[in-house]
């Protein structure tokens, strides 16, 4: 009976690259959990979405009448970020 060597022994470069990617993804998820999202604009004015964890962000100045969905965060857009007061938190 022959046993196959572990994949990491056969493809050490690939295994290392996958491990680096996994570590980077885990670090990115940890940053998202701490509120450090990488937001990207959508076609809807005042609405952004994190490209990593898909968290929704809404600018309260662009959409003041809208109710925030569960897990959405308040994000001030570039047009309105100068109107943000320090006591309201950070964007």
In short:
By secondary structure, this protein is of the alpha+beta class. It has helices at 7-10, 12-33, and strands at 39-41, 47-50, 56-58, 73-74.
Count of DSSP H/I helices: 2
Distance between the termini: 61 Å
Main sheet: strands, sense, barrel: 4 strands, mixed
Q: For the CA atoms, what is the radius of gyration?
A: 20 Å
Number of domains: 2
pLDDT < 50 stretches: none
Shape: elongated
**How much helix, percentage-wise, in residues?**
25-40%
Overall pLDDT:
79
The SS-based structural class is alpha+beta
Which strand order does the major sheet show?
1-2-3-4
Compressed to H and E, one letter per element, the order equals HHEEEE
Would you report the number of β strands?
4
The fraction of residues assigned to DSSP E strands is 5-15%
């Amino acid at each position: 009976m022959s046993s196959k060597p572990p994949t990491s022994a056969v493809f050490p470069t690939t295994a290392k690259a996958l491990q680096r990617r996994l570590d980077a993804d885990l670090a990115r998820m940890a940053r998202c959990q701490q509120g450090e999202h990488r937001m990207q604009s959508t076609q809807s004015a005042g609405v952004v979405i994190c490209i990593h964890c898909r968290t929704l962000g809404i600018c309260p100045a662009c959409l003041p009448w809208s109710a925030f969905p569960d897990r959405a965060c308040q994000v001030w857009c570039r047009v309105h970020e100068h109107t943000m007061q320090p006591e309201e938190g950070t964007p």
